[in-house]
Design goal:
It contains 4 helices and 4 strands, in the order ααααββββ. It is α+β, with helices and mostly antiparallel strands. Strands 1-2-3-4 form a 4-stranded antiparallel sheet, with helices on one face. β2 and β3 form a beta hairpin.
């Protein structure tokens, strides 16, 4: 009985810790895990609704393909929230060995990742108010 009770407490702690982090942090941790090739960690940030589409093998192939074309991942330079869009994606400006790109990350209401997309980097000017 003690073991199952402790397991329940541990699972609740994990769930609470995920709900306390922001979408920005989720995206940063996902990207860092992904390009550190820690696919087991990266998959934890994926929303359950798309588990059937994404697995560790697909993430590995995706990273190999991206780094094969863009070079080794260096760092996240900055991020930008698109608050005007319906699902409020976050664009992470990424420095790779050969170029810099944006990775657009879409999130579910529970701050889990619904998808990520590669885009050419765009400079966005802040409007004076």
């Amino acid at each position: 009985m003690k073991i199952s009770f402790l397991t329940i407490i541990a699972l609740m702690s994990i769930n609470i810790s995920f709900s306390q982090i922001s979408a920005k942090e989720t995206g940063e941790k996902f990207i860092t895990s992904l390009f550190s090739k820690n696919f087991a960690s990266a998959i934890e940030y994926i929303d359950e609704s798309i588990y059937y589409k994404i697995n560790e093998d697909i993430l590995q192939k995706t990273v190999n393909n991206i780094e094969g074309k863009l070079g080794t991942f260096r760092k996240i330079i900055s991020l930008r929230e698109d608050t005007a869009s319906f699902n409020k994606p976050i664009y992470y400006y990424i420095n790779f060995e050969n170029t810099k790109i944006d990775i657009k990350v879409n999130f579910s209401d529970n701050k889990k990742i619904l998808g990520f997309f590669i885009h050419p980097h765009e400079e966005h000017k802040v409007k004076n108010q």
